[in-house]
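Hallway conversation turned thread

IA: we were arguing at lunch whether anyone had actually written out Phage-related protein end to end. Turns out nobody had. So, for the record, here is the sequence (113 residues) and right after it the structure tokens. Reply here if something looks off.
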Amino acid sequence: MPALKPLRFVGDARRRLDAFSAHAKQQAGYQLYRVQTGRPPADFKPMPSIGPGVEELRVWDSENRTYRVIYTARLMDAVYVLHAFRKTSQRTEMRDIELARRRLKELLSGGRP
């Protein structure tokens, strides 16, 4: 069994993920566990507009609401969740992208959650 990378949350990402519906939270948790063990999540896309190695995990709940978790697993010490939110439009809002960018920049400059 592969080693389990620690999961670390930046800013209020943990609180936001905890606000997901129960089904979406369970799905996101399982997919993040896959990432922690070095496996890809079931549904994700790269987010180069935020930074290299940043990906967006996509989950839906039983009510067909859409949720996103932006993370990076490229750092050696942990999987970092930069942002988590409920998506309400077709495109990811610029404010969500900017928030994840700021958090990644802070993380890479030595600021740890």
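OS: looked through it. The chain is about 30% helix and 25% strand.
IA: good, adding that to the notes. The first helix runs from residue 13 to 18.
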